[in-house]
Every structure is written in structure tokens, then in C-alpha cells.
């Protein structure tokens, strides 16, 4: 593998978040379509996610919350933008070889903390309730997620995502993480579902209970920023899972099939379940995924 120049690394690091945002828009559309079909609706048109972003950024924005509100949104979006440059995709490695899986794990936690910082600036109790639930959910899914990350790094003997992908692709489907570490793959799927904050783990939004939680004090460009964050969040979770357990992408066609399947399959199942309460969410994610993760870790380390 040839060493990239500094200029090439910078170009790839700029291009990768743009690619992530575009693909993430289609993932959001797919999720809305899935929900609509399950509920026997037609669903939104193809360009609806773009319409939403343009509409939000074109609206007047409430700016009375102070500069901390702005910093929170920048952290929420910026955490995922930085994470994209560490997620290798076909033809683009960015700074994946420099950062590694451990740094990426920390980067994924930044957006939730940024959202808490921004909404905490507001005085609306609904926002505070939503943020407390979001941080509780993060604590719930981070435990099995860290176990899964440790198990994968132990199995492949490296935290370098480029090397993890190369090892899986060299061995073929039988060498994929899902084939070698099925228990960790299942635990990772649970953690992925919790990380996305979608049904049935959408406790921090809960529109019927707390008036959309953290989004209650967001308007205009702030809400548009959260929409962008959602696109990057879904893409990041799907690519990370495909990288760890599905061999990454040999080319863009196989890569897109894998990451869209990673999002579509669990979402198709999840949309038929009711939302969990906070205590049920913690109990679920600390029972089955953690147990499966620890068993998978024991097999990997044996």
C-alpha cells in the first residue's frame, strides 16, 4: 500500500464527510419509506430529505440561547464529521490508519455530549428531560459497544480499521467478523440499534410524552444541523458495523448493499415494536447484548 501524501489525506478527509452526508440522506429516506410501508402509507418523495434541510435552513432562527447553544450544535455535527474521516470506504481511507478504532469510539460519543451541552443552555424542562434520557441511553448502549470493539480488536490483533478490513477480505466471507465472531456480531447489532436512537429505543425524543425532547428548543438552522447529524449518524453506525463484521466494501456496489442492509433489516423489525421506557432500555441493553458480548469475548480470547 502506497503512503498517501498530506494533500491527498486532506482531500480524502474533506470528501469522506460529503459522501457520508449524501448516502445518509438516502438512508433517512429509506427509513421513512420502511416506516410508511409498515404503517400502510405511501411515504415521502425521493427528494424529501433535501427539501427538509433547505426549508429548515431557510427559516428564521431563534438565537436568544447564547453562544453555548451554537457550540453544542457544532459539537453534535462536528463529532460525526471527524468520525467520517476515520471510517475507510472503497478508495478512501482518510486518516483511518492514523486514528484507529479507539479514537473513533471516542468521536462517536462527542455528538451526544454536544447535544446535551447545547440543549442544557435552554430553560425548557422538556429539553432537559430529553437530554437526561439521551445520556442514559448512551450509557446503556456504550457498555455492549465497548465490549464488542474490544473483542474485534483482540481477534484481529489491531485497532487499525484498514487492516481489519484487509484481513476479512483476504479470507472471504468465511473470514468476516460475523462468521468468526457471531455472538459479538449479534451484540453489536443491539448496540447499533440503540446508537441510532430509533424505534424502539427513541426514548429521548418520545414526541407523545415530552414534546420531542432535545428538539423542543431547536429551530431553523439548529434543527437543520440536527437533521444533518442524523444523516451522518445513521451512515456512521452502518459503515462501522459493516467494517467490523461484514468485511467492509470490496467496491462501492457491495459496500452500499451492506450498509443499507445493516440499517434496513433491523429497522424493518424495530418499527413494529413499541418504544421502551428508560429503565426497560437499560435492562435490555445490559442483559442480552452484554451477556452475548462477554460470551463472544470469552470465545475470542480462548
Strand and helix layout:
Blueprint: H1 6-38, H2 48-58, H3 67-84, H4 96-99, H5 101-120, H6 125-156, H7 161-171, H8 177-180, H9 182-196, H10 207-210, H11 221-245, H12 252-270, H13 278-301
Helix pairs in contact: 1-3, 1-11, 1-12, 2-11, 3-5, 3-11, 5-6, 6-9, 6-13, 9-11, 9-13, 11-12
Question: Would you kindly provide a written description of the structure presented here, covering whatever features stand out?
Answer:
- The chain is built from 13 helices and no strands.
- The chain is mainly alpha-helical.
- The protein has one domain.
- The model has no long low-confidence stretch (mean pLDDT 85).
- Tell me the Rg in angstroms: 19 Å
The amount of helix comes to over 70%
Tell me the distance between the termini. Answer: 32 Å
How many separate structural domains?
1
